[in-house]
Amino acid sequence: MALSTLSDLDQSLPDASALTVSSSDFAREWTKSQHGVLAFIGSLAVDFDDAEDLLQETAAQAFAQIERYDPSRPFLPWVFGIARYVVLEHYRKRGRDRHVFDQQIIGQLAQAIEDISDRNDAIYKALSHCREELPSRSKYICRLRYDGNLPPQEIAARVGASSGMVRALLHRVREQLRRCIEHKLQAEGLAR
Amino acid sequence: MSDFTRLVSAWLDGDISDVEIEQLHGHLHQSEANVRRFAEQINLNYLLRKAHAVDSSRSLADAMQVQAAGCAGAAVSASSGVVGATTKSAIDDRPAGLVEVVAAATPLRRGGWLARRAVGRVVACAVGVALVLAGVFAWKLSRPAVELIGVVGAQFVGTDAKPGSDLVGKTLELSQGFVELLFRQSDATLVIEAPAQFRVEDAGTLRVDSGRVTAHVRDGKQGLRVLTPEADVFDLGTRFAVDVTRGRRSEVHVFEGKVEAGVARSGSRQLLTSNEALRFEASSQPAACDFRMASFVQPEELRPLAAGFDEGQHRRARRAFDDLTRDPAILAAIDFEGKVEPEFIEINGAQPAQGRFPGQTALDFVDVDDRVHMNWTPTVERFTLMTWVRLNSELGASNYSSVYHTDGWGTPGQVHWMVKGGIGFMGRMRFAIHGEAVEVGKSETFWAVSDRTLLDNLNRWTHLALTFDSEKRQVAFYVDGRFDTSTELPKSMSAVLGPAEIGNWSPQPRLPRRRLCGRMDELLILSRALSEAEIHGYYRASTPYR
Predict the structure, then answer these.
(1) Which of A20, A124, B332, B504 is the least buried, fewest Cβ under 10 Å from its Cβ?
(2) How high is the ipTM of this complex?
(3) Which residues are within 8 A (CB) of A84 and not within 5 positions of it... i.e. 6 or more apart?
(4) 3 state SS of B534
(5) Pick the residue with more confidence: A156 or B515?
(6) Do B105 and A40 touch (CB under 8 A)?
(7) CB pairs under 8 A between A and B
(8) Residues of A in contact with B47 (CB under 8 A)
C-alpha cells in the first residue's frame, strides 16, 4: 500500500487501449457520470470552488484522451483516474504535494459511487426534506460550510465558538442527515 | 466517535493532515465496507454542496429580479445612480452549472469540422464581430479610468460630482451619504461613506484623509493602493475596508483575501488576511484591533439603501419616530442626533457614524469601553424597548453584545437585554429580569431567549424590539417587525429600567466588557407593551431598505 503523490504522477494516468469511442458515446457516458466525478473531485480538493474548475479540466482531459478509453471497461474508474491526475497537477501548481489515494482505493471508490448513483435523485430529494428538519443553528453552520465554503476555524470565529465544536456539529449534522435519508429511502423501498 | 469516522469527518471538512490521510488510507484498505461508507459520505457532501448552490442560485435569481426592477426605476430617477457594477459582478460570480461546464469543455477539442460547412457565413460574421470589437475597444478607451458610478443621498462640500464623472486628480469632500467609485484598471468597486474627504491620485491610488471606504477589488494583478495619513494599504484582489478618523487613526479591516498594510511612508508592510484588522496611530506602532464588518457598507447593500432613500423612507422614518415621541407612554426617545437626547444620557467613547439614512447619525461602539450611560431610575409594570442595530459578524470576545443593561446585577426587577453568540445561542436575543432572593445564592431570576438567530442579519440594519408586561406575565421578542416568540413570566414583577448602559455592560472588573459589536441608530423606550401591529408598522415606516 502506497499513497500517491506527485512523485508518481507519471504512473497515474489511466491505462488505455486503442478502441474508438465516438463523441456522442463520450457525452452520454459523461452525463451519466459527472455527478459522481464531481463528488469524487470535491472530496479530493480542499476548496469547493476549485472542484468545479477541476471538473471542467477533467472533462477536457478525458475528451482529449478519449482514444485511450476501452469501452468494454467501466467508464467511471477511468475518469476517476484522470480526475486524480488533474487534482494532483492542481496541487503541484500550487506548490503542494498533497497525498491522495492509490489506484486500488480509487477503483473501489469509483465502483461504490457508481453503485449509489442510480439512487442519487431519490437521495437528493430526501436530503431536501431532511435539511428542512435541521435546527436553525445547524442550517446556519451548514450554509457557512457548504455555501460560504468556510473551513471550520473560520466558521468558529464567525459564530463565537471553538473550531472543535464546529467540527463536532458538522459531523452530527451529516450523521443526522444520513440517518434521515436512510429512513426516507427505506420508506420508499429504495434502501439497500 | 471511531477513529475511522473522525478521519472521514476531518477529510470532509478539508481539515486533515498528511499523517491522518495515511491513517484514513489504511482504514480504506482494511475493508470494502469502509470504502462504501466513505463513498456514501463523499456523495452526501457533494449533494449538500449542490443543494446549497441551488439555494444560492435561487437567491441570486430573486436578487436579480429585484435589481432588474431597480434598474428600471434608476432610469427615471437621477437622484441615486447606483448602476451597473453590482449587477455585473453578481452575474459574473455565479457558480457554473454542470451542463455549462461540460458544454464549455467539449467543443474545445472537436469544433473544427463545423468550419467547413459555411465559410461565407463565417467570413461575414467575422467582419461583423471585428466591427463590434473595434467599437467596444474605442468605447473602452473613452471611459474614465476612475468613475463615479453611483450616489445615495450624497452632498459634497465645494466641488460637486455627478455619476459618470472622471475622478482622477480630483479631491472631494462628502458631507453626507454614500458614493460608489469604479477603478477600471483593477476592476475595483469602492463605497465611500460620509463624512469623508478623499482624492483620486491616479488610476490605481486613492488617498483618504477621513471617512470609511469599502473596496471589492476583482483584479488582484493590478491591485489597488489606499493611502491615509497614517497608513499605506495595498490590495491584491480581495474585499477590505479602511476607516480613517481625521487626526486620530486609520484602521484596515480585511473581509476576504489578502492585503498588505504598513505605516505611511515607511516602506514596510505586513500581510493581513480575512477577518483581521490593524489600527495605525501616529503615536504608536500598528496594533491588531477588533475586526468590524458592520461598520462598513458593502457595494451590494447600496442598491436597497438607494431605493429606500429614493422612496422617501428617511422622511417616513422621521415622522414615525416623532409620532412615537408624542405617545403618552414614551419614557425615552434617543436618536443620537444630538438634538432631542434626554439630559440624563452621557455618551462615553462611542463614535458618531452615519445612521441608516444619509445625513443621520448612529453610534458605532468600536472600543471595548464605548458606551452610553443613562442616569435614570424608572420602575414600570410594562415596557417596550425598540432599536435599530447593525451587528458585526464577530459578536465580541465575551460573546455578548449588550443592547440595554441596567448597572450591576443583583437588584430585584433590573433588566438586561443582549444578543448572545456561542454555539448554544448562535446570535439569539436574551432577556433577563432579576428576581427576589429566595435564599442565599438563589433568586427567582427569569431568562428568556428569542427563537430566531440574528446571524442571518449581521452587517445590515436590523430592527429589534422587546416587550414586557408584568400583568400578562409575558415577555416577547420581535425581529424586523415580526413577532419572534414570547415567554411566560413565572410571576408578576415590576421592571427597574435604570440606571443603565446602552451598548455595554461590565460583569466584573476582571471579566470582558459586553460591548455591543456594531452600530446603534435610535433607541425608544415606552412604558407600555406595544402591539405586534404597532411594532410591525414602526418597522415598515422606519426601515432604510426597499
Answers:
(1) A20
(2) 0.79
(3) A4, A12, A44, A100, A101, A106
(4) helix
(5) B515
(6) no
(7) 191
(8) 39, 120, 123-124, 127
Grid cell of B326 as nine digits: 408624542
Q: Give the phi and the psi of residue A171 in degrees, each rounded to 5.
A: -65, -45
Q: Are B186 and B154 in contact (CB under 8 A)?
A: no
How many other C-beta atoms can be found within 10 angstroms of the C-beta atom of residue B208?
24
What beta strand segments (E) does B307-460 contain? 330-334, 345-348, 351-354, 361-365, 371-374, 379-380, 382-391, 400-406, 415-420, 428-433, 437-439, 442-443, 446-449
Residue-wise DSSP of B173-215: EEEEEEEEEEETTTTEEEEEEEEEEEEEEETTEEEEEEEEEEE
Q: What pLDDT score does A72 carry?
A: 81
For A146, the closest chain B residue by CA position comes to: B49
Rounded CA gap, A91 and A96, in Å? Answer: 5
| Residue A151, preceding peptide bond in cis (omega within 30° of 0) | no
**Distance in angstroms (rounded) separating the CA atoms of residues A126 and A184:** 6
CA distance A148 to A138: 14
Q: Kindly state the cell numbers that stand for B45.
A: 457532501
- In this prediction, residues A97-124 reach a mean pLDDT of 77
B520: enclosing H helix or E strand: strand B518-526
DSSP letter for A7, please. G
| B105 vs A56, A113, A140: nearest CB | A56
Q: Which of A99, A120, A123, A166 to mutate to test the interface with B (most CBs of B within 10 A)?
A: A99
Residue of B391, B414, B411 whose CA lies nearest to B503: B391
Q: Do A39 and B28 touch (CB under 8 A)?
A: no
Contact A140 B456 (CB under 8 A): yes
Among A43, A47, A143, whose Cβ lies nearest the Cβ of B45?
A: A43
Give B109→chain A minimum CA distance, Å: 7
Reported as a single tens digit per residue, the pLDDT across A141-187 is 888 888 777 888 888 877 777 888 888 999 999 999 999 999 988 88
- Distance, in Å, from the CA atom of B382 to the CA atom of B527, rounded to the nearest integer, reads 5
DSSP assigned state of A162: -
Residue B98: which of A34, A140, A174 has the nearest Cβ?
A34
Does this model's pTM top 0.80? My answer is no
The angle that helices B3-12 and A163-187 make with each other, rounded to 10 degrees, is 100
Using CA coordinates, name the residue in chain B closest to A143.
Answer: B52
Task: At B304, list the grid cell.
Answer: 436597497
Taking the CA of residue B105 and the nearest CA in chain A, the distance in Å comes to 5
**Residues of chain B with C-beta less than 8 angstroms from the C-beta of A181:** 44
Residue pLDDT, tens place only, A79-95: 888 888 887 777 776 65
What is the DSSP secondary-structure string of B97-165? Answer: PHHHHHHHHSHHHH-GGGGGG-HHHHHHHHHHHHHHHHHHHHHHHHS-SEEEEEEEEEEEESS---TT-
Give the max Cα distance, chain A: 58
Condensed to tens digits (0 to 9), the pLDDT of residues A91-103 reads 776 655 556 677 7
pLDDT in tens, B477-512: 999 999 999 999 988 999 999 999 999 998 777 677
* CB within 8 Å: B1 and A177: no
CB contact under 8 A, A128 and B96: no
- The more confidently predicted of residues B240 and B53 is B240
| Nearest-by-CA chain B residue for A130 | B48
pLDDT of B444 strictly over 60: yes
* Gyration radius of chain A's alpha carbons: 19
Residues of A in contact with B109 (CB under 8 A): 60, 63-64
Beta strands in B409-517 (DSSP E): 415-420, 428-433, 437-439, 442-443, 446-449, 461-469, 474-479, 482-488, 495-496, 500-502
Answer yes or no: do A34 and B102 touch at CB < 8 A: yes
Mean pLDDT of chain A: 76
Q: Is the pLDDT of residue A22 over 60?
A: yes
- Determine contact, residues A6/A97, Cβ cutoff 8 Å: yes
